[in-house]
Design brief:
The protein is of the alpha+beta class.
Length: 157
C-alpha cells in the first residue's frame, strides 16, 4: 500500500500568486482614483466654507475681504498667509489642501475693486473635461469648474 502525496505543484502555486497580483493591482489603481475624487470633494467643501466666511465678513464690513499681499508669480493672494490676520473671527481655522499642507487655496486679487467681489479657487487633481489643469472656483456669484486659472471677477464665473 502506497501513500498518496497531497499538495500543490509549483505551477499551481505560481498561477495563484499571479492571479492575486493582478487582482491587487486592479484594486490599487481603482482606489487611487477614489482617493483623488475624495480630495477634490474636500477642496470643493473648503471653497464653500470660504464663501460662507466671506459673506459673513461682507455683512459686517459692506465689502468682501481684500487681499493684502500677492503670491509671487501669480499675483494671487495666498489664503494661508493673509486670512488669519483679518478674517479669523469668521473662519478661525483656514482650510489647507488635503493632499499637501504646503499647498494653498487662492483668490484673485480684488483690491483694485475695493473688495466688491471675490473669487477663491483651488487646483483640482482630476482633469475632468479640461485638457491640462482643472480649477474649482467659489465666488460671490456661485461655484464653477474652470479650465483656466481665474484672475478677475470676469474669469472666475
Amino acid at each position: 500500500m502506497t501513500k498518496g502525496k497531497r499538495g500543490f505543484t509549483l505551477i499551481e502555486l505560481l498561477v495563484v500568486i499571479a492571479i492575486i497580483g493582478i487582482l491587487s493591482s486592479i484594486v490599487l489603481v481603482s482606489m487611487g482614483t477614489a482617493r483623488e475624487q475624495a480630495r477634490d470633494a474636500r477642496r470643493m467643501a473648503d471653497m464653500r466654507q470660504i464663501v460662507s466666511a466671506q459673506e459673513l465678513f461682507y455683512g459686517d464690513n459692506n465689502r468682501y475681504y481684500m487681499c493684502s499681499t500677492a503670491n509671487p508669480g501669480t499675483g494671487d493672494c495666498a489664503a494661508t498667509v493673509t486670512w488669519p490676520r483679518s478674517i479669523g473671527t469668521y473662519m478661525p481655522k483656514v482650510p489647507v489642501d488635503p493632499k499637501s499642507t504646503n499647498s494653498q487655496y487662492y483668490w484673485a486679487n480684488n483690491v483694485t475693486d475695493n473688495g466688491y467681489w471675490f473669487c477663491a479657487y483651488a487646483t483640482m487633481e482630476g482633469k475632468g473635461s479640461c485638457a491640462t489643469v482643472r480649477y474649482y472656483s467659489s465666488s460671490f456669484a456661485g461655484n464653477s469648474e474652470l479650465c483656466a486659472q481665474p484672475t478677475s471677477s470676469a474669469t472666475c464665473i
